[in-house]
Specification:
The protein is of the alpha+beta class. The protein is built from 14 helices and 30 strands. Strands 3-9-10-16-13-12-11-27-30-26-25 form an eleven-stranded mixed beta sheet, with helices on both faces. The protein has a four-stranded mixed beta sheet with strand order 20-17-21-23, sandwiched between helices. A three-stranded antiparallel beta sheet has the order 4-8-5.
C-alpha cells in the first residue's frame, strides 16, 4: 500500500482524516476557548479570497456593506417568538458589565454591575438590524434597502469541528427590505443563485438549489432556500441559505412605510448568509490523502517555486532565475487577476518543503535547480493530478499558466460532479431507503449512503424514521419536475421528490 501524507486515510476514518488535513495544511488550530478556533494565515487567506469574491458579487447586485452591534437586547429576540425559540439553546448571554476581586485571588461579576437587561451575543442579526431598519424606512421612496454585513457570530455548540461547527465563526449576512412580497421573493432567489454561482464557479463544488421543508426552515422565515453539496464521505453540506421572511420581522420590529397610495404598510424582508463553513466544504470536496487540494480561484498562491541548490555558487544562479520567473508569471492573468506566485527559499530540506506545499494544496509546484536552468525546461507538478510532471519550455509555461490554472479548476469541478453522480440514487421503497443509509459497521461507520431522491410527505412517521437512520431531508430541488408517487414513509400521494442524505 502506498504511503500517504495524511494518516488515517479517508476510507479508514473520515472524521479524523478531516482534522488531520486541517492540521497538515496549517489552516487552523483549537484555541484556549472551548469550541473556538484560531484561523491561521493560510486558512484566513482562503477565507479572504472567498470574502473578496463574494463581496464583489454582492455589490454587483446592488448591495452595500454596513456593520451592526455584536450585542442584542434580549427584548429584541422576545418580540419574534419563533425566532427566539429556534436560537434560545445556542445563545450566549451577557449579564454584567464589570468584574471585581472575589477575595480569593480571582475575579467575579460585580453584583452592583448587573445589567438592567441581559444582552445576547449575536447568533444572527435579524432582530437588531430590523430595529435599525424601522428607523431608516419611512416611505416607499426609501425602499429597497440592500445591506450586507461581514461579522462574527456566536452559537453555543455542544459538539464542534473546525470550520464546520464552532462556537464562534465568521460569516456574512445579507438583510434587505422591500415594498412588495414579489420583490422580496425575487431577492431571495437571486441571492441563492449568487451562492450557487460562487460555489460552482469559484469553489468547484457542485450544488443543488432547493427549498427547505417546513421543519428545516430558518426560525421565523416564510420560506428558506439552500444550496446543498455532497462531500467525499457522501454526506451533504448545507453551504448557504437564503430566507424569505415575509412580514414576520417587520411586524415584530415595526418596519413600516407609507405606500404610493398613502397607506401605512409593513415591509417585506429577506436575509441570507454563508460562513467559514465554506472552508470546511472546500476541504471535504477536494482534499485527498496527501492533504488539501485547492481550486485555483481560491488558492492564496497559484504557483510555488522551490529553488534547489547544493552550494553558494548554485544558489547565485538559481535564485535570480526563480525571481525572474516569479516576476514573469505574476505579469500573467488568470480569471482577470494577476497570477499569485511565491518563491520558497527557506532553509529547509527540499523534501520537507515540497511536502509542506503538497499538504497546503497549492495548484502548481515547481522545483528548479541548475539542470532545469541549463536545459531551459521546467517540470510543473499539478496538485490535482498524480501523473508524473511533463517537461515544458520556460516561456511556454509562463504564457500558458492561465490556461493551466483554468484546466485545474475545471478538473476539480468535474471530479466532484462525477463523484456526486455516482452516489446519487432514486429510491421508491422504505426497505431500499433503510439499506442505503445503514452502515455495515455501526460502531465505526464506513463511507456509505449518498444523495437519495425520494417521494415524501412531511409527517411524524418520516421524522421518526429519519432520526433512527440519522438522515435528513435536505431540500426539494428547484429544478425538479412534478412527478406522481407515494411517500416512502406513509404511502400518501406525493407530487415531488426531495433530496435525502446524512449531513453535517
Amino acid at each position: 500500500m502506498p504511503r500517504t501524507a495524511i494518516t488515517p486515510t479517508r476510507d479508514e476514518n473520515y472524521p479524523e482524516w478531516y482534522q488531520q488535513v486541517v492540521k497538515a495544511a496549517d489552516l487552523a488550530e483549537n484555541s484556549d476557548v472551548r469550541g473556538c478556533m484560531v484561523i491561521k494565515p493560510w486558512g484566513y487567506a482562503i477565507w479572504e479570497n472567498i470574502q473578496r469574491r463574494l463581496d464583489a458579487m454582492f455589490k454587483a447586485t446592488g448591495h452595500e456593506n454596513a456593520y451592526f452591534p455584536l450585542f442584542i437586547p434580549m427584548s429584541f429576540l422576545e418580540k419574534e417568538a419563533e425566532h427566539v425559540e429556534g436560537f434560545a439553546k445556542e445563545c450566549a448571554v451577557v449579564t454584567h458589565h464589570r468584574l471585581e476581586p472575589d477575595g480569593k485571588g480571582g475575579l467575579q461579576p460585580a453584583p452592583s454591575a448587573k445589567l438592567d437587561e441581559p444582552l445576547i451575543v449575536r447568533p444572527t442579526s435579524e432582530t437588531i438590524i430590523g430595529a435599525t431598519f424601522a428607523r431608516w424606512v419611512q416611505s416607499y421612496r426609501d425602499l429597497p434597502i440592500l445591506i450586507n454585513q461581514w461579522a462574527n457570530v456566536v452559537r453555543w455548540e455542544l459538539r464542534t469541528r473546525m470550520f464546520l461547527r464552532t462556537t464562534e465563526f465568521l460569516w456574512q449576512e445579507g438583510h434587505t427590505v422591500h415594498a412588495t412580497p414579489e420583490e422580496a421573493q425575487r431577492e431571495t432567489r437571486q441571492m441563492l443563485d449568487v451562492y450557487a454561482e460562487f460555489a460552482e464557479g469559484s469553489m468547484a463544488m457542485p450544488v443543488i438549489k432547493g427549498e427547505k421543508t417546513a421543519g428545516e426552515r430558518f426560525p421565523g422565515a416564510v420560506a428558506t432556500y439552500s444550496i446543498e453539496a455532497m462531500m467525499q464521505d457522501r454526506k451533504a453540506l448545507q453551504a448557504g441559505t437564503s430566507h424569505f421572511l415575509g412580514q414576520n420581522f417587520s411586524k415584530a420590529q415595526e418596519i413600516k412605510f407609507q405606500s404610493e397610495s398613502g397607506d401605512l404598510e409593513y415591509a417585506w424582508t429577506t436575509s441570507w448568509g454563508v460562513s467559514t463553513r465554506l472552508v470546511g466544504g472546500l476541504i471535504m470536496t477536494h482534499a485527498d490523502d496527501d492533504g488539501l487540494v485547492l481550486p485555483p480561484k481560491l488558492a492564496p498562491a497559484h504557483v510555488v517555486i522551490l529553488p534547489i541548490y547544493r552550494n553558494d555558487e548554485e544558489r547565485a544562479a538559481v535564485l535570480p532565475f526563480c525571481e525572474r520567473l516569479k516576476s514573469d508569471l505574476a505579469a500573467q492573468q488568470y480569471d482577470g487577476e494577476p497570477v499569485r506566485v511565491r518563491v520558497d527559499d527557506r532553509d529547509l530540506r527540499g523534501g520537507d518543503k515540497k511536502w509542506q506545499w503538497v499538504k497546503r494544496g497549492v495548484p502548481v509546484r515547481l522545483e528548479i535547480g541548475p539542470r532545469d536552468i541549463a536545459g531551459g525546461e521546467l517540470m510543473p507538478a499539478r496538485r490535482d493530478s498524480a501523473d508524473k510532471p511533463a517537461k515544458i519550455g520556460r516561456d511556454a509555461f509562463v504564457v500558458g499558466i492561465g490556461r493551466l490554472l483554468g484546466e485545474i479548476q475545471q478538473s476539480l469541478f468535474d471530479r466532484a460532479a462525477v463523484a456526486r453522480t455516482a452516489a446519487t440514487v432514486k429510491i421508491d421503497s422504505l426497505a431500499e431507503f433503510e439499506k442505503f443509509f445503514t452502515p455495515k459497521n455501526a460502531d465505526q461507520p464506513e463511507i456509505h449512503g449518498g444523495l437519495a431522491y425520494c417521494h415524501f410527505v412531511d409527517s411524524a412517521e418520516m421524522d421518526a424514521k429519519l432520526k433512527d437512520l440519522k438522515a435528513t431531508v435536505r431540500c426539494v430541488p428547484l429544478d425538479g419536475e412534478d412527478e406522481p408517487g407515494k411517500c416512502l414513509f406513509t404511502g400518501q400521494p406525493s407530487t415531488r421528490r426531495g433530496v435525502f442524505a446524512k449531513a453535517y
